[in-house]
Amino acid sequence: MHGMSSKEVKTALKSARDAIRNKEYKEALKHCKTVLKQEKNNYNAWVFIGVAAAELEQPDQAQGAYKKATELDPEQLLAWQGLASLYEKCNHENAKGDLPGVYQKLLDLYESVDKQKWCDVCKKLVDLHHQEKRHLEVARTWSKLIKTRQEDGADKQELYELWRKLTQLLAEEIEDQDNETQQMLWTAFENALDLVASIPSEEHRVLYQRFLQCLSKFPHETTRLKKACEGMINIYPTIQYPLEVICLYLIESGSLTDEGQQYCCKLVELNSKSGPGLIGLGVKALQDKKYEDAVSHLTEGNVQSVVFGMTTILAFL
Question: Which residues belong to the signal peptide in this entry (predicted)?
Fold first, then answer.
């Protein structure tokens, strides 16, 4: 049998493409195999086999064909796109392990040609890292996305949404994270708080509260916690939460200064039954050897704390 001319190869590939378009996948495979007999390294033939095999629910054959194509020409998009969509669709055993690398390759290829697709793949990669609890990769990849959107002139609202999303992605298992991830979480909160459309607002207050909740889990983040509490108290002077956090923190750290006493007083002014406020005043009175005041504040404060379930204070006492 004589070899096919390059014109015949082109015709066979066109027939394969038409067959795929008409959902005649077995027909498409025949045309591709004809081409491969002649040119065993024909990139498009391997890609079309990948597409047809995937549609015929033969994931192993599809994967093999796409991989072969990526080896033949790693800088072409088609086979990588095919591999990504194959892994996304079927629970292929290699999917979990191989997909991050495939996404990474797509990111490299899209970077200079299609920013929108780059962003889409970037989000998919973050989702994948997030499912696998790879916190640092989530933080680094999402930060890259934000940087790219910033460079492309994203508006304030979009950047706010992106930073806020990062706080949600990272705040879940915060105690298991390494220092770099935690620092990125604090940065995300601080940037999101700066970008909220209106301050003061309910949205801003809730975000601030989440920031303090996360920070208060880290005893070594003292300076940042104090600064954040003071920041929130300045904007929301009648909200008890930041005052409670700072009073609790000062009580636990055993450093109730005069400044700390002022916070406790403010808290008791806002709520005469505030457990942390009363206990703070009691501890301060103890430090100043004012024992009668100490007893009355601590007794009353302790009762309130039981009501609020503030076990931290009780443990301290």
Answer: none
Range(s) of the domain holding residue 259: 220-317
**What is the three-state SS of 16-81?**
HHHHHHCCCHHHHHHHHHHHHHHCCCCHHHHHHHHHHHHHCCCHHHHHHHHHHHHHHCCCCHHHHH
Are the beta carbons of 267 and 304 closer than 8 angstroms? no
Q: How many domains does the chain have?
A: 1
Could you tell me if residue 144 is inside a domain? no
Residue 117, token pair as written in the block: 């697709």
Question: Which residues, in sequence order, are CB contacts of 139 under 8 Å at separation 6+?
Answer: 166, 169, 170, 180, 181, 184, 185
Per the domain annotation, does 238 fall within a domain?
yes
The per-residue pLDDT for range 50-102, each reduced to its tens digit, is 999 999 999 999 999 999 999 999 999 999 999 999 999 877 666 778 999 99
In terms of Cβ atoms closer than 10 Å to its own Cβ (0-12, 13-18, 19+), residue 24 is: middle
Domain assignment present for residue 242? The answer is: yes
Distance CA 219, CA 161 (A): 29
Mean per-residue pLDDT, 227-235: 95
The 10s digit of each residue's pLDDT in 237-246 is 999 999 999 8
pTM above 0.90, yes or no: no
Amino acid found at 181: T
CATH (domain of 312): 1.25.40.10
- Let me know if residue 276 belongs to a domain: yes
Buried b vs exposed e over 111-150: b needs ≥16 C-beta within 10 Å? eeeeeebbbebbebbbebbbeeebbebbbbbbbebbeebe
Q: Is 197 exposed, middle or buried (0-12, 13-18, 19+ CB in 10 A)?
A: exposed
Residue 200 DSSP class: S
Question: Cα torsion at 200, 204, 206, 207 (round to 10°)?
Answer: -150
